[in-house]
Specification:
The protein is mostly helical. It has helices at 5-23, 42-56, 60-73, 78-91, 95-100, 107-119, 123-131, 139-153, 157-169, 174-187, 191-205, 210-222. Helix 3 (60-73) runs antiparallel to helix 4 and helix 8 packs antiparallel against helix 9 (157-169). The two termini are 23 Å apart. It contains twelve helices and no strands.
Length: 223
């Protein structure tokens, strides 16, 4: 099944928002210490320090420029690689994707590569990236959502809903999973299924939820 372009944009938007939440998880942050740093490499150390100061001052553009310059002087330094990636990511620099490929154990790097694959239409590759994320912290909650949205983006609505259904049937976070499953069913034009899932989300949230209420109101208006 081929999705209209607007459906894929919806999947990309959902992935971007979920990835941003996951990247903010403290358990997945890169180590910002200088362990393993060889301070004798003066050519790299000076821009490294400038980049760190710029980052602390919120100047992510300068931080990325200096960290990337430092990495160019000492490309095999693991501390520099981590810091250059983080600086490039915060500054929105394209180099972040290249460096991410060299950081297999960095959670934010895996999220960035998955998003890059999805934007390029490589949905299966994106699914594999998200499926391989470590199940810890906030990622443990968000991972099924990331996987389901990549499956939907790739045109596999049934697989996406099947990924979320066991979690909809569970008690923990079922409101969140039911809401996302409802949006996927809604975008796929499966009105009865969307209505059922939106109803579960509304009931599970308990207190009024603006996003759920807006989605259900939209669904009711269209049906």
């Amino acid at each position: 099944m081929q999705h209209p372009r607007s459906f894929r944009r919806s999947a990309l938007l959902a992935l971007s928002l979920l990835s941003a939440c996951a990247a903010a998880d403290p358990s997945g942050r890169a180590d910002a210490s200088t362990q393993g740093w060889d301070s004798g490499r003066a050519a790299a150390f000076a821009p490294f320090l400038i980049g760190r100061v710029a980052s602390m001052e919120g100047d992510f553009t300068t931080s990325a420029n200096e960290m990337l310059r430092a990495l160019s002087h000492d490309p095999n330094n693991p501390v520099l690689r981590q810091q250059a990636f983080l600086a490039a990511l915060l500054a929105g620099r394209p180099e972040a994707v290249r460096i991410a490929a060299e950081l297999p154990n960095n959670q934010a790097a895996r999220l960035l590569l998955g998003n890059a694959d999805a934007k390029a239409g490589h949905w299966q590759a994106a699914e594999q990236e998200f499926a391989g994320l470590p199940k810890q912290g906030l990622i443990q909650v968000l991972q099924p959502l990331l996987v389901a949205w990549t499956q939907f983006g790739g045109g596999h609505t049934d697989r996406a809903l099947a990924t979320l259904q066991p979690l909809v049937d569970s008690q923990q976070f079922r409101a969140v999973y039911a809401f996302h499953a409802g949006m996927i069913a809604d975008l796929a034009g499966r009105e009865p299924e969307a209505g059922r899932l939106y109803g579960i989300a509304q009931q599970a949230f308990g207190a009024p939820n603006l996003d759920v209420s807006r989605a259900i109101a939209s669904w009711q208006a269209r049906n």
